[in-house]
Amino acid sequence: MTDRFVPAETDMLVLVDIQRDFCPGGALAVPDGDAVVPVANRLARRFAHVILTQDWHAPGHRSFASAHPGRVPFEAVAMPYGTQVLWPDHCVQGTEGAEFHPGLDVPMAQAVIRKGFRPEIDSYSAFSENDGRTPTGLAGLLRERGVRRCVFAGLALDFCVAFSAEDAVRCGFEALVVEDGCRAIDTGGSLASARARLATAGVRLIRSDGIGD
């Protein structure tokens, strides 16, 4: 039996990084990533408040393996702010890969939070850069709009979705993740790690068929 969840006026649906480069054929394709698109489209019509996040990297971003001679994608390196997984070049500002998936149909979205645009630091979370100190401004936006609970879907579950949900709790919001509205990269045990962190943070995993009137 699926738990029922009825969106309230104080809920915000946060659709995370549903972009071309994270979908099949993209530079950092998440397996089956485009399967989240129809789920996101349905969810967006059940919420009064919807925002999007968008990975928006400067060319030559330090999180790219290409910026570290001799390194390869998915290798981890030490950065001033901690351990950083190196990625293929992806979601570079102004490129086709950084665009939202063409099937994403959410004209009701009220804002786009761009992240990762600072060349020297990556940003998984919709709330802060990977140093855990530099804010994106999302928490302030949500507070000013009276939001109490964030519901997350998008890409990828084990990175940007999970870090965003954890930070939502850290910032004082309740957080839910729509599991069938996400897909994972799952590199080096990242999915299992993300699930454990979400459970510790008190983030509840739900399914889209349990959301409605």
UniProtKB/TrEMBL annotation:
Gene, per the UniProt record: pncA
PANTHER family associated with the record: LD05707P, PYRAZINAMIDASE/NICOTINAMIDASE
Chain segments annotated as coiled-coil in the UniProt record: none
EC number: 3.5.1.19
GO molecular function: metal ion binding; nicotinamidase activity
Pathway participation: Cofactor biosynthesis; nicotinate biosynthesis; nicotinate from nicotinamide: step 1/1
Cross-referenced InterPro entries: Isochorismatase-like_dom, Isochorismatase-like_sf, Isochorismatase_Nicotinamidase
The keyword Zinc appears for this protein: no
Keyword Transmembrane: no
Protein's name according to its UniProt entry: Nicotinamidase
Keywords from the named record: Hydrolase, Metal-binding, Pyridine nucleotide biosynthesis
Family, per entry: Belongs to the isochorismatase family.
Residues in Isochorismatase-like domain copies: 12-202
Gene Ontology terms describing biological process: pyridine nucleotide biosynthetic process
